[in-house]
Amino acid sequence: MQEHILIIGNGGREYAMGLALSQDKRVQKLYFAPGNGATTRLGVNLLAKTPQEIVDSIQKLGITLVIIGPEAPLSEGLSDFLRAHHIRVFGPSKQAAQLESSKAFMKDFVAKIQVPTARYIQSDDRHLIESFIDTLTPPIVVKADGLCAGKGVIIAQSHQEAKETAYKMLEGESFGDAGKRVVIEEFLEGYELSVFAVCDGEDFVMLSACQDHKRLLSGDKGPNTGGMGAYTPTPLCDENLMQKIKTRIISPTLKALKEQGMPFEGVLFGGIMVVEKNGEKEPYLLEYNVRFGDPECEVLMPLLQTPLLDVVTATLDRTIKNLTLKMSENYAVAVVVASKDYPYRSSAPALIRIDDFDTTLGHLVFAGVGNDEKGNLLANGGRVLLAVGIASSIKQARDNAYKILQNVEFEGMQFRDDIAFRAL
Ligand code: AMP
Ligand code: GLY
Questions:
Q1: 118 lines ligand 1 (CB under 6 A)
Q2: Hey, whose CA ends up nearest to atom 19 of ligand 1?
Q3: Is residue 309 in a domain?
Q4: Measuring CA to CA, which residue among 141, 299, 123, 113 is closest to residue 211?
Q5: Which of 143, 214, 287, 289 to mutate to test the pocket of ligand 1 (most atoms within 8 A of CB)?
Q6: Contact present, 120 and 135 (Cβ < 8 Å)
Q7: What residue owns the CA closest to ligand 2's atom 4?
Q8: Residues 285 and 208 in one domain
Q9: Could you give the number of structural domains in the chain?
Q10: Rounded Cα gap, residues 7 and 57, in angstroms
């Protein structure tokens, strides 16, 4: 079958999926909604915004498959709306997307089925929250219930700070309605992994484990961001640990979702804290996301040897069980280049200059970019682009990514110089 595929979203994640699909002979045409200033190199950007406009475009253009990249349209029910119009769509239902759109829902859900996770309460009651905070030893984790673009988690250093942070959320001062219910958690000490299960409602396949770098500055300093770089596979996740993640976290979650009438179809992304206990590595679930990570998707896509289209199709056909997922023996390291004032405020658009580089080193992925009137690329978003280095070792892949970046320039560009440091 020749596919005409629409990718919803505008970031590096969506560009990376588009790049992978553009190399597949079965993909006749790619569309993006809204896409960015570089996805036009891979396909056509659509103006459709509302779910109805998206359906109209799909019907008019003969689009055969839709892939939803970001969490917002999933939590708003776009996949249900498209399915109701008999459109093939890769992405979980609104109900299942609550695993990401409500931290309170997620914590209650996994606690009930005994998935290992930090001790917590979720509440909108000041007194309950206060008394739980008093039982914890700082640092104390305070989370706004709803979607906050990765900014809704505060690590408080004292009981007082935790309480004040929670009050501000409850009063709607810090995160509006998203903070009117909060989750208070014990702080877990360890290192983080991102794991990805592609699920067909019943069965799943795991992709290789990734590590993201959430802080802005090298050495894990500065504020949290959407992610400043990632690499995969990581030696910090061995077979044994991956087995624990599958049996203790992913499997019971999928089983319970199915039993409760909300089977999960799409990418289930586990944010895992690995805690050392008696010399053993034990995985705890910090959060679920219901989509590929960004920038994790950018390192997973180039290592997929099983075509992305086959993975997506097996999900829709509920045949994941029969899919043998092959990934390359190589490593991928992605370094995010952000604009000058990221993540504090938006920066003035800046012209991007890219010199030719040796494409055996890897490639560029474009995220927050637009075009000037002459069609030149402009940096106009927070995370602007990524250099993805590919090689047979992490060190070489990382060197390759930084070599690619020597050929990229725009005013105010900033990036970390230590991506993958934990593995080296
Ligand atoms: P989340 O959005 O829930 O993943 O939280 C964002 C970041 O906050 C995580 O990537 C962790 O670095 C940190 N974090 C969240 N929950 C905890 C916890 N219980 N203990 C330690 N760090 C946490
Ligand atoms: N890289 C973390 C995220 O996509 O939420």
A1: yes
A2: 187
A3: yes
A4: 299
A5: 287
A6: no
A7: 293
A8: yes
A9: 4
A10: 13
The closest-lying atom of ligand 2 relative to the alpha carbon of residue 212 is 1
287 touches ligand 1 (CB under 6 Å): yes
Does position 402 have pLDDT exceeding 80, yes or no? Answer: yes
Cβ of 14 below 6 Å from ligand 2: no
Same domain membership, residue 358 and residue 284? no
Upstream peptide bond of 34 is cis (omega within 30 degrees of 0): yes
CATH of residue 143's domain is 3.30.1490.20
Choice from 153, 194, 212, 288 to test ligand 1 binding pocket (greatest atom count within 8 A of CB): 153
Asked which of 278, 305, 322 is the last residue of a domain, the reply is: 322
279 occurs within a structural domain: yes
Among residues 322, 339, 364, the one where a domain terminates is 322
**Is residue 214 lining ligand 1, measured as CB closer than 6 Å?**
yes
Structural domain harbouring 290: 191-322
For residue 191 and ligand 1, the question of a CB distance below 6 A is answered with no
Best probe residue, ligand 2, of 194, 207, 272 (max atoms within 8 Å of C-beta): 194
Per-residue pLDDT of 118-165, as tens digits, reads 999 999 999 999 999 999 999 999 999 999 877 789 999 999 999 999
Counting residues of the chain whose pLDDT is more than 70, the rounded percentage is: 100
243: domain CATH number? 3.30.470.20
Nearest ligand (C-alpha, residue 226): 2
pLDDT digits (tens, 9 = 90+) for 284-328: 999 999 999 999 999 999 999 999 999 999 999 999 999 999 999
Residue 216 has pLDDT above 80, yes or no: yes
At 89 the pLDDT is 98
Q: In this structure, are 201 and 178 located in the same domain?
A: no
What number is the average pLDDT over the span 102-129?
96
Tell me, yes or no, whether 100 lies in a domain: no
Query: Residue 13: its pLDDT value, please?
Result: 98
Q: Distance from the CA of 294 to the center of ligand 2, in angstroms?
A: 5
Kindly state whether residues 240 and 342 are assigned to the same domain. no
Q: Which amino acid, one-letter code, is at 58?
A: I
Largest CA distance in the chain: 61
Q: Is residue 282 part of a domain?
A: yes
Ligand 1 geometric centre to CA of 77 (Å): 26
